[in-house]
C-alpha cells in the first residue's frame, strides 16, 4: 500500500481537475500519509490544501512544479519545502499565464486548420482555467464532438485505441508538446534559475519523471545534481520496470534522493492513480526521512 505521493495537481494547474479540498479528500481515501501538492508554476493551492490536510491528519509538504529549460530541453523541476509566500512565485506564475493565454488562439487555429478537427471554441473556453486553453482541453472537446467520429486523427484516442489510456494528455503530447507539429514555445526560466529560486526560498529540488524529459542522459542529470538538485523522481507513473532500475541505480551512484510521485491530475490522466503501488521500495524510509525534515519534533512513524 502506498503512503507517500509527492507529485499531484489541483485545478490551480491549468490541466488539473480537482479543488485542493477535494484532492485532499481523495488522498485520505487512498490512505496516503505524506503528500505534496505541486501545481505547475503556481503556489495558490498550498494554503487550502494545508488546511484540508491538517483536518484529514495527512502531512503535507508545500511544493510546486516549475517548468524550465536546460540546453533546449523542457524540464519539470519539483520544489519541496519552499517558502510559498515569496512574491517571486506569484510573479513567475503571472508571466507564464500571460504567455499561455496568448498561445490559446494559435492552438485552436492549428487544431482546426491543420488537423481538420471540428468543435466549438466556446466549449474549450468553458473548460479552461484562468482563460488558458490547453492541448488536453482541445483533445477532450474534439473527442466529445460527434463530427469527429470519422476523423482518423482521433482514432488512437478513442475507446480501444492505442493511446486511449490517457487520451487527453496523449493528444497533447502527440500534437502540442516539444518536437511535435503544433508546438508553440513558452519562454520558461532556465533550469538554473528554477533551481536557484527553490533553494533561495528554503526548499530542495527534484527532477520530475526523468524518463519523459531528459531520458537516460546521465551527464545532464549529473550536471543538475552538481548545481544543487537534491533528488530524482525515480518512482513515477510513467516509468517502466526498466526505468525504475536504471534511474534508481543512477540516483544511488550520484547520491540523489529517490522520490515517489504519481503526477495525478484527474480526468486529464485517468490511468494515473494517487500513490505508487508497484513493488516494495522503502516508502516507510522515505516517509520517516521527510517527516523528520519537515515535521521535526513530531512522531516519524507512518
What does this structure look like?
It contains ten helices and eight strands. The chain is of the alpha/beta class and 302 residues long. The protein folds into two domains: 4-94 and 186-294, TIM Barrel (Alpha-Beta Barrel); 106-175, no CATH class. Strands 1, 2, 3, 4, 5, 6, 7 and 8 form an eight-stranded mixed β-sheet that branches. Strand 3 and strand 4 (73-80) form a beta hairpin. Helix 1 (20-29) runs parallel beside helix 2 (46-56) and helix 5 (135-143) crosses helix 6 (167-175). The radius of gyration is 19 Å and the shape is globular.
How would you concisely characterize the structure shown here?
With 302 residues, the protein is of the alpha/beta class. The protein contains ten helices and eight strands.
What keywords describe this structure?
single chain, 302 residues, alpha/beta, TIM Barrel, 2 domains, 8-stranded mixed beta sheet, 10 helices, 8 strands
Amino acid at each position: 500500500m502506498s503512503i507517500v505521493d509527492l507529485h499531484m495537481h489541483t485545478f490551480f494547474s491549468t490541466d488539473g481537475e480537482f479543488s485542493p479540498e477535494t484532492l485532499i479528500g481523495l488522498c485520505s481515501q487512498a490512505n496516503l500519509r505524506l503528500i505534496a501538492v505541486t501545481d505547475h508554476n503556481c503556489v495558490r493551492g498550498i494554503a487550502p490544501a494545508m488546511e484540508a490536510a491538517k483536518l484529514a491528519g495527512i502531512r503535507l509538504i508545500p511544493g510546486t512544479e516549475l517548468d524550465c529549460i536546460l540546453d533546449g530541453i523542457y524540464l519539470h523541476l519539483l520544489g519541496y519545502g519552499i517558502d510559498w509566500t515569496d512574491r517571486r512565485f506569484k510573479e513567475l506564475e503571472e508571466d507564464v499565464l500571460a504567455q499561455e493565454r496568448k498561445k490559446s488562439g494559435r492552438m485552436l487555429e492549428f487544431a482546426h486548420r491543420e488537423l481538420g478537427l471540428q468543435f466549438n471554441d466556446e466549449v474549450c473556453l468553458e473548460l479552461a482555467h484562468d482563460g488558458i486553453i490547453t492541448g488536453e482541453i482541445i483533445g477532450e472537446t474534439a473527442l466529445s464532438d460527434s463530427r469527429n467520429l470519422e476523423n482518423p486523427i482521433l482514432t488512437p484516442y478513442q475507446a480501444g485505441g492505442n493511446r486511449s489510456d490517457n487520451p487527453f494528455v496523449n493528444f497533447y503530447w502527440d500534437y502540442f508538446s516539444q518536437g511535435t507539429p503544433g508546438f508553440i514555445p513558452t519562454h520558461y526560466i532556465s533550469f538554473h534559475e528554477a533551481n536557484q529560486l527553490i533553494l533561495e526560498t528554503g526548499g530542495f529540488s527534484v527532477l520530475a519523471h526523468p524518463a519523459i524529459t531528459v531520458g537516460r542522459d546521465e551527464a545532464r542529470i549529473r550536471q543538475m545534481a552538481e548545481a544543487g538538485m537534491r533528488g530524482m523522481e525515480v518512482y513515477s507513473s510513467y516509468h517502466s520496470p526498466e526505468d525504475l532500475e536504471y534511474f534508481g541505480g543512477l540516483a544511488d551512484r550520484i547520491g540523489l534522493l529517490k522520490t515517489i510521485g504519481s503526477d495525478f491530475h484527474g480526468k486529464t490522466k485517468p490511468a494515473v492513480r494517487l500513490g505508487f503501488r508497484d513493488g516494495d521500495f522503502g516508502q516507510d524510509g522515505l516517509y520517516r526521512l521527510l517527516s523528520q525534515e519537515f515535521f521535526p519534533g513530531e512522531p516519524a512513524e507512518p
